[in-house]
Amino acid sequence: MSSNSISSAAQSRIHQALDAFSIEIPSWGFSNTGTRFGKFLQPAAATNIEEKFADGGEVNRLTGATPTLALHVLWDLPNGVADVAKIQELAKTHNIRPGSINPNVFQEPEYKFGSICNPSAEVRQKATQHLIDSVEIGKALGSAEVSLWISDGSNYPGTQSMSRRIGWGKEALAAAHAKLAPGQTMLVEYKPFEPAFYHTDFGDWGMALEFARSAGPQAKVLVDTGHHYQGTNIEQIVAWLIELNALGGFHFNDRKYADDDLTLGSIDPYQIFRIFHEIHAAQANKQGFTAPAYMIDQSHNLKGKMEAMVQTVVTAQELYARAALIDQAELASLQDSCQLIAAEELFRGAFWTDVRPVVQEWRSERGLPADPLAELYKSGYVERIAAERGAKNAVGQSSYA
Ligand code: PSV
Ligand code: MN
């Protein structure tokens, strides 16, 4: 289907939607990663923060849609606030700003039984201080979001008090929230399993919402699309969070079975389309709706990191554009008169429309490469970094950092 079959009203809706759409990319998406069974090293993977910024800046140059790079504190700012000046310098050099600040309270041995929900007051204090330090890093860098994934939980029934851990978690989040600057948002991510396999303290959106609400008014929920049980209606969770003014952001990725961190839309693009539809519907119908932060959280063990990241950004734009095709007023009227087939055809018709020509036209009008992936191949960037980094990557390094 060519762009000619898309009405000019729909084409301009797509242009407007894309103008307002940007998506944050994760620094850790450029590093060597693996599974719990092993790590596959790639010659072009980033081996330090300079290389992560260089790669992020290149994705931004190619797509014009990724103005910020998410940073993970222990992996990217191992010296905490002391690393801020270096990050600011890299941001200037590579034309990509520091984005969300992600504290890390899941990899140190003290956190074996939990971080802010650990029964030990000493461990909780260490974890809380790390959250506070992360807020301070965010303030110094002008980051809009401090994004928390609290991996706490337990593996066996009866071994931990799920209810007392709620209170400890709330106390820590409130302490970190108290340090936020006025414009900053605290994002609270949830995940039903892994690394814990019996209970996780931040197990679903209800728990995350209650933790966010009790922390304070600047805390909202983050939806990672890989963090749900099979069959969960994620778009309904999104609709509820919008209703409750509690949708803070997304970590986008795809999955087949668990938290697989696959490329966005590689398994189920319709799922992402349905989520984007809820956003477009809210933009059309809800007074005062503010768009959440769109972020990617993926790790590509088999695909090239640069290629997969560009593919993801392009896919996100295409699915966002496809959801923008729906005429919201028309859909609402079909829904209200219960014209099921017509409503469904309008909805899925948008999903099946090839918007790529319109998206390419939008890119060309803005002086961006019409096909970012083709441009990446043409630029020789991946070959260059593979040659430069190959020797370093031949010897193992720790994941992500
Ligand atoms: C955990 O699975 C997660 O989704 C969190 O967002 C972490 O910060 C990220 O992945 C990287 O491990
Ligand atoms: Mn995540």
Describe the structure.
This protein is α/β, with parallel strands linked by helices and 401 residues long. It has a single domain, classed as Alpha-Beta Barrel (TIM Barrel). Helices cover 48% and strands 12% of the residues. It contains 15 helices and twelve strands. It has helices spanning 8-19, 49-63, 73-76, 84-94, 121-141, 162-177, 205-215, 234-243, 269-285, 305-324, 328-336, 340-352, 356-365, 372-379, 381-394, and strands at residues 25-26, 34-35, 38-39, 68-72, 97-102, 145-149, 153-154, 185-189, 199-200, 219-224, 247-252, 293-296. The longest helix is centred in the first third of the chain and has 21 residues, at 121-141. The structure holds alpha-D-psicofuranose and manganese (II) ion.
- Helix content estimate: 40-55%
What ligand molecules are bound, each kind once? alpha-D-psicofuranose, manganese (II) ion
Q: Assign an overall shape.
A: globular
Mean pLDDT, to the nearest integer, reads: 96
Radius of gyration, in angstroms, nearest whole number: 21 Å
How big a fraction of the residues is strand? Answer: 5-15%
- Number of separate helices: 15
- SS class: alpha/beta
Order of helices and strands: HEEEHEHHEHEEHEEHEHEHEHHHHHH
